[in-house]
Amino acid sequence: MSLVEFCEPYDSIELWFAATARDQLQLVWLLDHLGSCPALAQKIGLRLLDSDLMFSPDYDFAKAEPHIPVADVGTEEFEIAKLAWSAYRAPTPEACIDLLHRDLSALLMLRPALLELLAELPSPSTGLGATEMRFLEMLAWYANTNALFHLRSLRDTYVFGEVELGYLLEGLALGPKPAVSGLGDELRTVDLGNLGAGTRFISAAGCR
Question: What are the domain boundaries of the chain?
Fold first, then answer.
């Protein structure tokens, strides 16, 4: 059963999304998809949270979070979502940059998400993105990399998940011109497709 088929019997559909770049990308992808189903589009309402959606599967959002208003999703929201999803999928970032010059207030958390994503592009001066630069700053202060992976508020970048952070750190340590040293040599033999990644994080713990 497709998502559209699942939603069709219901009189109203609420979408709950957090502020992270990952969530906002999923939101614009979903609105771009649902916008092609006019009958379904009329049923959609949107609630935006300023925190992560970290709840148990049986959590009753509507009852527990009554202070979060339901916003209607109309032509403007679908149009912005379509433009944003197309811009994100483009091979170069110009479309995303151009999108920042538009009024994106229909999707309140989209602009900050786009800025976070663009900040991760390689800098003209260093060739590194925001998270990679933050890694180097924090490694100058801390004895290991645990905080880089697990303390997002301390890391202060929010685009990447733990596995992706592992890949970034490997790039800094195992590239042709390593920027950090001390990464476990076993990382060179860990299958990059192994999403369990336990060995990766253990090996990264001693990085300087």
Answer: 3-119, 130-204
